[in-house]
Amino acid sequence: MLKFKGSEEINDEHGNSVATVQDFWAWAYSNLTNNTERGAYAEYLVSIALETEAITRIDWMPYDVLTPEGIRVEVKTSAYIQAWEQKGFSQIIFGIPQTHKYDFDADAYDYNAELVRQSDVYVFCVESCKNREVLNERDLSQWEFYVISTKQINKKLGSQKKVSLSTLLKIGARKVSYSGLKQAVIESYSC
Known about the structure:
Layout: E1 9-11, E2 17-20, H1 21-29, H2 35-49, E3 65-66, E4 72-79, E5 93-95, E6 99-104, E7 109-116, E8 121-127, E9 143-149, H3 150-157, E10 162-164, H4 165-170, E11 174-176, H5 181-190
Parallel strand pairs: 4-8
Antiparallel strand pairs: 1-2, 3-4, 5-10, 6-7, 8-9, 9-11
């Protein structure tokens, strides 16, 4: 898969440069408070912390990150402050639905009828800042990370589709620092 550096030019039909890939990225993805960008950003942060070898994000996979150890990780994110005007802080709730099992085959990819959670471990990322004036998604001290095995989620929550942060803590999710993510994921997988 091709990984752009950002300096690549976007050319018109005459071969004249009209912008760069970096210009596009800045236009499309600078608002990290937006739910869509925040989600991809959290996946990126977790991918770096877990020292993955993925060249780029593949958004159609049945999990978000694959560690060098072969651990499949689902990354979820939430925040108190949203991109839009708010009367109060958002509740911290994550989607954890089961999905149709994805079968990888040498000849084809296919979904089957079985509903499962397709990761081994979940990492829940919370942009925890509650002051819009100092909100800075690039400051990892403004983030909280919670790790729990998918087995534990399945055992305690069954087919439940959403979960609050308080419930995650009750069922054993561990709060860890960004630098502690890799070890926490490995330990959760081993349990």
